[in-house]
Amino acid sequence: MTTSAAHPRFAEALRTLGLAGLPTRSFPEATRTAAEAAAAIGCELSQICKSLIFAADGVPVLVLMDGASRVDVELVRGELGAAKVTRAAADVVRETTGYAIGGVPPFGHRTRTKVLADRSLLAHDVVWAAAGTPHTVFPMAPADLVAHADATLVDVRERTA
């Protein structure tokens, strides 16, 4: 793991939020999945913050979820009062956020979207999220991450039987 510059759009978002000194880390191998990121960082899978784009009645929405959990789209649908919620296609993710899947950060997107953050993120002192590329991540206290993402705290985690 080495210190590295974040994606230019994300770096600008950090400056705008007064977080220009936030450390980012880069890896020679991509960390597109939560498991790859956790292994590279050396943290628990649940300490990874996944930034996932869904389409709620065709409108993009960002869901922040811990890396060990899956999003229950029915719970998202209920939170949003939407008729239908589906995973967004890769082109919609890039168009909405300005980033490719595997590198989407929790904030600093091309367009403003509704953001939901699962409460499971708050179980840790620090979580790690993508910094705009599949090779870069940054650490942040979960409550700060939720605040900077302007997210609504919800319970949208899939329950295991």
Q: State the major sheet.
A: 9 strands, mixed
User: What is Rg?
Assistant: 14 Å
Strand content: 25-35%
Order of helices and strands: EHEHEEHEHEEEHE
Which overall shape is indicated by the principal axes computed on the Cα atoms?
Answer: globular
Q: Could you describe the 3D structure shown?
A:
With 161 residues, this protein is of the alpha/beta class. The protein is 25% helix and 25% strand. The chain has five helices and nine strands, in the order βαβαββαβαβββαβ. Strands 1, 2, 3, 4, 5, 6, 7, 8 and 9 form a nine-stranded mixed β-sheet that branches. β7 and β8 form a beta hairpin. The mean pLDDT is 91.
Summarize this structure as a short list of keywords or feature phrases.
161 residues; alpha/beta; nine-stranded mixed beta sheet; 5 helices
How do you describe this structure in short?
This protein is of the alpha/beta class and 161 residues long.
Sequence-ordered SSE layout with sheet pairings:
Blueprint: E1 2-3, H1 8-16, E2 25-26, H2 34-41, E3 48-56, E4 59-66, H3 73-80, E5 85-87, H4 90-97, E6 114-118, E7 127-130, E8 136-140, H5 142-148, E9 152-154
Parallel strand pairs: 3-7, 4-6, 6-9
Antiparallel strand pairs: 1-2, 2-8, 3-4, 3-5, 7-8
